[in-house]
Amino acid sequence: MTPRPVYFDCDTGIDDALALVYLMASPEITLAGIGTVSGNIDAARAAVNTLDLLALGGLDEVPVAVGAMDPLAGPFSGGVPHIHGHNGVGDVELPHTARGPEQESAAEMLVRLAHEHPGELDVIAIGPLTNLALALQLDPSIATLVRKVTVMGGAALVPGNVSVAGEANIWNDPEAAQIVVSAPWQVVLVPLDVTLENTFEEADRTALAASASPLNRALADILDLYFDFYVHEYGRRMCALHDPLAAAIAVGQITATRAPKVPVVVDDTQGPGRGQTLCDLRGQRGGARDVEGANVRVVLDTDQPLGPVLLQRLLDYAG
Ligand code: BDR
Ligand code: CA
């Protein structure tokens, strides 16, 4: 089977790094281009981290474009060093590649790739949705050219993780998220409802640390800080697999078993609900039911835990 072309949008980021290496290791897809955005860290540093991880895995031909430094409606808030480290990758010093990013912006890259692969390009977005919104503003026709957009973001029936209702990727740029969910393309939203249920344990990190691959050993080091942060959520050192779950659903290794297409609106007001994804899940008690005209599929259940699947794929990867 020919691998499907993917445009990957990220704010690398510890779980972004896991998702990136998972995609590097996935024969089902090919990374046609990667754009970075400010979220866990600023977009320029996210590009450095992405380029360094690609180089460590020997994938030096994948183009990386720096995207939006600021959200649509205001300045970047500065990242989350207590979660992802001051450099975005858990304060681990990765071997630094000399390769730099492309001249084009991430939004320009997405528009270009959508036209180069009409009807075929999969978009996987695991950071704030600023670049996707800018690409839609540059060229609204991409909504009909892109095959599918898989987004890690939002919270449908559970609390947020930045505010009571706001999940980080959506909360960081709600105006962009509203543009993305209301565009006429097919979106698969992978919210906290499912990502917090999929985890990596200390034994998984130890297995990566014992791997022959320098990339896996780097991931084990990077995860150390992230495991500390999640003690407050789970009561012990482990972590959620937010971004890798979106990647694995897009790749098709994990199947969404309950994922109705429903109307979704993002709260982009300045009130306490800013950043909330309002998923209209009324009338779903009798089983998942697609609402006519809705274009956002909200993932509420999956067929199997991601942890073992992810670990196996990383360990099998020669990079
Ligand atoms: C999301 O926010 C970021 O911190 C993670 O990388 C993930 O994309 C989880 O809310
Ligand atoms: Ca992310």
Question: Which helices and strands appear, and what pairs or packs with what?
Answer:
Blueprint: E1 4-10, H1 14-24, E2 29-36, H2 43-56, E3 64-66, H3 81-84, H4 106-116, E4 122-125, H5 130-138, H6 142-145, E5 148-152, H7 168-171, H8 174-182, E6 187-190, H9 192-195, E7 199-201, H10 202-209, H11 214-229, H12 231-234, E8 238-240, H13 242-251, E9 256-258, E10 261-262, E11 264-266, E12 277-279, E13 296-298, E14 301-302, H14 306-316
Parallel strand pairs: 1-2, 1-4, 2-3, 4-5, 5-6, 6-13
Antiparallel strand pairs: 7-8, 9-14, 10-13, 11-12
Bound molecules: beta-D-ribofuranose (BDR) and calcium ion.
Mind explaining what this structure looks like?
α1 (14-24) runs antiparallel to α11 (214-229). The chain is built from 14 helices and 14 strands. It has one domain (4-316): Ribonucleoside hydrolase-like (Inosine-uridine Nucleoside N-ribohydrolase, Chain A), CATH 3.90.245. The protein has an 8-stranded mixed sheet with strand order 3-2-1-4-5-6-13-10, with helices on both faces. The radius of gyration is 18 Å and the shape is globular. The model has no long low-confidence stretch (mean pLDDT 97). 37% of the residues lie in helices and 17% in strands. It is an alpha/beta fold and 319 residues long. Calcium ion (CA) is lined by residues 10-11, 13, 16, 39-40, 126-127, 243.
Short description:
By secondary structure, this protein is α/β, with parallel strands linked by helices.
